[in-house]
Amino acid sequence: MDSSIAFLIFAAAMWAAWRRDPRVAVFLFALGMLFTLAVYLHHATDVLPLSF
Amino acid sequence: MTPANAMKLNAVALYAISAVLLVAFYFQFELGELPCPLCLLQRVAFTALAVGPILTLRHGPRPGHYGLIILAALLGAAIASRQVLLHIMPGDAGYGSALLGYHFYTWALLGFVAAIAASAAMLLFPGQFAEQAPPLGLIETVAVWLIFAVTLANGASALLECGFTWCPATPVHYELLYKPA
């Protein structure tokens, strides 16, 4: 679900950019970047099956 | 470079991003390779790359729009680099199948680095930064709607795969379609 939310945030940013609302688009872009970074850091703690 | 030419190149970038995501969809649905959480985040970063070009197509070329592309590409490159490093040990088979000898996360890393280089190169042409944005053509309009549709499709696909919780580290089935025996 985490990735779905990130996709939706960037889709909303694209929609705002298309609707000639650049400030909202940039705000949503920044929000999406922070959210994606947070999800990335969350998955950095995933258990990794090592191959050696 | 004229604003019109810069906008055409931004439309080409949108088509390229859509093509990357559609190839990933092909491997996911035709070959049954479910994307891992890092793979999904790289797809997210590819969609983030599209916001700058759409702003350029709607409002005309601005240096800040290329800045957005570079920021998104840096995040994507960081995520792809981590996955490359996770599989860098000799003998590691990597995650998923390879395309032309490289796994998708390696291609993704190359793609994000190419996006940074292309944006930096575009910033070298100040003639594109005119006040008035040229009118949009059909090719540019289709490019925007294509990447918008592909982004929404990715959101739906990720929801199907992960369900209403965190995506599993190693996905083996679609959570919303899975019926335990």
Commentary on this structure:
The complex is a heterodimer of chains A (52) and B (181). Chain A is mainly α. Chain A has two helices and no strands. Helix content of chain A is 75%, strand content 0%. In chain A, α1 runs antiparallel to α2. The longest helix of chain A has 22 residues, at 22-43. The mean pLDDT of chain A is 89. The radius of gyration of chain B is 18 Å and the shape is globular. Chain B contains six helices and two strands. Chain B is mainly α. Chain A binds chain B through residues 1-4, 6-8, 10-11, 13-15, 17-18, 20, 22, 25-26, 29, 32-33, 36-37, 39-40, 42-44, 46-49, 51-52, and chain B through 37-38, 40-41, 43-45, 47-48, 50-51, 54-55, 58-59, 64, 68, 71-72, 75, 78-79, 82, 86, 89, 91-93, 144, 147-148, 151-152, 154-156, 158-159, 162-167, 169-170.
Here the CATH topology of chain B equals Bromodomain-like
> What is the CATH architecture assignment of chain B?
Up-down Bundle
Cα shape of chain B: globular
Number of strands of chain B: 2
Strand residue percentage of chain A:
under 5%
Order of helices and strands of chain A: HH
- Residue stretches of chain B low in confidence (pLDDT < 50, at least 5 long) are none
* Overall radius of gyration of chain B: 18 Å
Q: What descriptors fit this protein?
A:
heterodimer, A: 52 residues, mainly alpha, 2 helices, B: 181 residues, Bromodomain-like, two-stranded antiparallel sheet, 6 helices, 2% strand
Short account of what is shown:
Chain A has 52 residues and is mainly alpha-helical. Helices cover 75% and strands 0% of the residues of chain A. A two-stranded antiparallel sheet of chain B has the order 1-2.
List the helices and strands and how they pair.
The complex is a heterodimer of chains A (52) and B (181).
Chain A: H1 2-18, H2 22-43
Chain B: H1 3-29, H2 37-49, H3 51-59, H4 63-86, E1 98-99, E2 102-103, H5 104-122, H6 138-162
